[in-house]
Amino acid sequence: MAEGFDIDHLAKLARLSLTAEEKALYASQLGQVLGHFQALAKADLPATADDARVVDESALRSDEPGPVLGVEAVTRLAPASRDGQISVPRVVDDES
Amino acid sequence: MSQAPSDWEVVIGLEVHVQLRTRAKVFASSPWGFGKEPNEQVDPVVLGLPGTLPVVNREAVEKAVLFGLVVGAEIPERCAWDRKNYFYPDNPKNYQLTQKDFPVVVGGRVEIELPGPSRNVMGEHRFVRIHHAHLEEDVGKLSHAGGGSLVDYNRAGVPLLEIVTEPDLRSAAEAEAFLRSLVAMLTQAGVADCDMEKGQLRCDCNVSVRRRGDARLGTRTETKNLNSISSVRDTVLHETARQVRELEAGRSITQETRGWNAELARGYVLRDKEDAHDYRYFPDPDIPALRISRETVARLAKQVPENLYDRQRRYVEKLGLPYTAASVLVNDRALAEWFEAAVAAHPANPSGVANLVANDLLRDLSAAVPPIPLSACPIRPASLAGLVKLTDEGVISKQQAKEVFAEMFSTGNEAAAIVDAKGLRQNSDTGELEKIIREVVADPSVAKSIAEYRAGNEKAINALKGPIMKRTQGKANPGLVDQLLRRILG
Fold first, then answer.
1. What string of DSSP letters covers chain A?
2. Which of B98, B150, B213, B437 would staple B136 via disulfide (CB 3.0–4.6 Å)?
């Protein structure tokens, strides 16, 4: 397993249930990806390299409301709905 | 409930989430607003459907920058957005777009005013430092019904500014004062409406306690999603008492996330969203970092209104207003500007104007059914100034001014016109008045009072004023009556 991550923990965070074989495979593949990024991180780049991903305010959107999907279209996207709302298994974050 | 025992000190930091005043959402063009049917205000970008691309709303950025300028913060040249990953149904994309490392606002401070010893005495002023504020998207709303939960995504994607303080607050009263001051600043600058009944301002409250004099901070708990100032105050009071009780019993404080049940007035431990602390933040690949030009910052700086406490100091020190009136006026920018327009029309007596605005006008506006907003006030600032001027010049008495005010409020007419129409002008004609006074004084029925007055009983003179006012149908100028009466009685 590559250093820097725990495949079991990542699988749990991603809500994935993996077999032992899959864990080994993904750990190896993810290790390669991370290794690649570690190599990139070591590259000696000028401080302005980041600027390629910086835009100015002309890239902003004006505050004009646009069209909406409509309640029916929204609820149709979900496996279950009720009274125009999306129905999910009970999630509890309150005292009840 | 009392404050922490004196050998304990409470340390509070707040994270205040404020919905910014925009028409469209922060990364999507879907409109948003209160009182819509569930899921009416949702578009594909809000849901994060495949192929959609979020684009940042200029107005949301500018409102965030404006807030920064209001609190004297730094506006970094560059800000950027990150994905905060978690699985929870309030979040349609499984990540929330937020700013982790490069927030739009860094630093700044908010002046607060603590309650004084009484309502007419100003309390202590302090500054609370802002750590930073970041621009993110609000999440959907869950409600629980029967065996399941229902999700409404109208709120998802609403521009949310999270304002994070330094742990500078030391009491429930300070937390309350901070929130009041912050709300005034946000609303006066037009950054946000902060209507707490509509959930436009929500607060997470970090509380820890330590022995007084201890430099290290104690273990803190975070109470989430408080939607009123009173809930923040109550949470601080209860959490302080609870932590002190635990520590004094020899137990330790667990770093935990808590909720507050306002109905039962008690806190509780939130069942942790599993691994919620591990959000695996990474820079959002869809939204490039944004460079905010110094020209934009300079333009927005011109929109920063006068700070409410600077205004209060100006009213008290330069205009000579009593603190009670000044503090009422400065809390509402429109009201303060209304007052200033009236003072501009009659600069000789700002206190007289302030008194009518802060007492009579506010009372009648709110007592109306339905209450009248200041923007629809039937009296114009210059008209109110006219009323104060008539009173100052002795044309009508203060008592009559109340009557004229009521008439102005119900008809919108000018003070002078009402005074004339009702024949209220005080009789200041010395000749006519003197004649009436001499007649009254000559009446044998008042001879006893006159004798008493001449014998040195000052108050006895009042017995003569009644019949004089009656003869003039209340129109005589009381000051003039007094003056003439004393001269005639010698």
1. --TT--HHHHHHHTT----HHHHHHHHHHHHHHHHHHHHHHHS---GGGGGGGEE-GGGSBPS-------HHHHHHTSS-EETTEEEEE----S--
2. B98
d(CA A7, CA B147) in angstroms, rounded, equals: 34
Q: Between residues 44 and 83 of chain A, which touch chain B (CB distance below 8 Å)? A: 50, 53-57, 59-71, 74-75, 77, 82-83
Here the tokens at position B132 are 């930073």
User: To 10 degrees, what angle do helices B381-392 and B398-411 make?
Assistant: 160
The reply to whether the predicted model has a pTM over 0.95 is: no
In this complex, which of B142, B150, B275 lies closest to A82 when CB atoms are compared?
B150
ipTM of predicted complex: 0.84
pLDDT tens sequence across B463-484: 888 888 888 877 777 888 888 8
Q: Output the pLDDT for position B127.
A: 98
- Residue ranges of domains in chain A: 7-43
Nearest alpha carbon to residue B81 among B292, B277, B279, B287: B287
Q: What is the DSSP letter of B210?
A: E
B75-105: per-residue pLDDT in tens? 999 999 999 998 889 988 999 999 999 999 9
Looking at the DSSP bridge assignments, the partners of residue B14 are: B205
**Structural contact between residues B67 and B282, judged by C-beta atoms closer than 8 angstroms:** no
pLDDT for B432: 78
The shortest CB-CB distance from A65 to any of B31, B268, B293 is to B31
Q: What is the pLDDT of residues B164-195, one digit of tens each?
A: 999 999 999 999 999 999 999 999 999 999 99
- Are the CB atoms for B482 and B474 separated by under 8 Å? no
In the stretch 249-268 of chain B, residues with CB closer than 8 A to chain A read: 259, 261, 264, 268
pLDDT band at B273 (very low <50, low <70, confident <90, very high): low
Chain B neighbors of A9, CB-CB under 8 A: 275, 278
CATH hierarchy code of domain B430-489: 1.10.10.410
H or E stretch at B388? helix B381-392
Q: CA-CA distances (angstroms) from residue B423 to A25, A96, B404, B420, B430?
A: 98, 68, 11, 5, 18
Q: Which position has the token pair 């009236």?
A: B342
Q: Which of A63, A77, A86 sits opposite B23 (nearest CB)?
A: A63
Asked if A35 and A42 count as a contact pair (C-beta separation under 8 A), the reply is: no
How big is chain B by its Cα radius of gyration, in Å?
Answer: 31
Six token digits for residue B366? 């709110």
